[in-house]
Amino acid sequence: MPLEILTVPCLSDNYAYLIRGDDGVCLVDAPEAGPIVDALNAKGWSLDVVMLTHHHWDHVDATEDLRRRYGCKVTGPKAEKDKLPPLDWSVSEGSNGGNGDAYTEILDVPGHTLGHIAFHFPRAKALFSADSLMALGCGRLFEGTPEMMHKSLQKMAALPPETMIYSGHEYTLGNARFAVTIEPDNQALQARVAKITAAREAGQPTVPVTLAEELATNPFLRCHIPAVQAAVGLEGASSEQVFAEVRARKDSF
Ligand code: ZN
Ligand code: FE
């Protein structure tokens, strides 16, 4: 059965995702119960598993409420087990499972937090990346180093380009304003900015997007491109060094 994926806007700019597949219904991140319960009710679905990407409150706050309502299981990163609500299963890279299109691979993608994980559904070609790889951006480095996040992004960038990227926040317009300062002449970026602006004016989410589109426009995935290196005055530097500089500029943008 092909996965049915619902984008659920929560809080002011978070996204949770409901995924229905052969194994039942799972939720990626639990920012706020109300909109998630409403979305489940509208579909007539129950909830089987909550899958947490990292320990920040805006991704986990509704976990216990949902567990009480649905009796669902909760899974999340082993490395953040002590900072998360009680986990039924703690997972890390290599803990794969699920059937059919719901088959899921865990990727360790530290940087934003040290234990941040992403959920990759290779058969369904979907990646739930929360605050690691984001539309036209990447998460802030609250706990990890630039080297860590760069490596995490490289890992996700190597997935099949048709993979759909579902990230954790609606930050795309702000990310776009920064991206155009790095690559003002990137035509794919200009086209994307127009699309994003129109979507936001219509109140539509700007996620998911294909990895191919991210590779063509997201400055954090383009640190090997001469125009990006030149924009931060680091021609010929390693993409890791360029990433660190682009990330630092975004922090003070
Ligand atoms: Zn976060
Ligand atoms: Fe977040």
How are the SSEs placed, and which strands pair?
Layout: E1 4-10, E2 14-21, E3 24-28, H1 33-43, E4 49-51, H2 57-60, H3 63-70, E5 73-77, E6 89-91, E7 105-108, E8 117-121, E9 126-130, E10 133-134, E11 137-138, H4 146-157, E12 164-167, H5 172-182, H6 187-201, E13 209-210, H7 211-217, H8 226-231, H9 239-251
Parallel strand pairs: 3-4, 4-5, 5-6, 9-12
Antiparallel strand pairs: 1-2, 2-3, 7-8, 8-9, 10-11, 12-13
Helix pairs in contact: 4-9, 5-6
The chain binds zinc ion and fe (iii) ion (FE).
Global mean pLDDT = 98
Radius of gyration (CA) equals 18 Å
The helix/strand order is EEEHEHHEEEEEEEHEHHEHHH
**Tally of DSSP β-strands:** 13
Query: What are the segments in which pLDDT stays under 50 over at least 5 consecutive residues?
Result: none
- Biggest sheet, strands in spatial order? 1-2-3-4-5-6
**Beta-strand fraction estimate:** 15-25%
Structural class: alpha/beta
Largest sheet: 6 strands, mixed
Task: Specify the helix fraction band.
Answer: 25-40%
Shape by Cα distribution: globular
Small-molecule binders here are: zinc ion, fe (iii) ion
| SS field, number of helical segments | 9
What distance separates the N and C termini? Answer: 44 Å
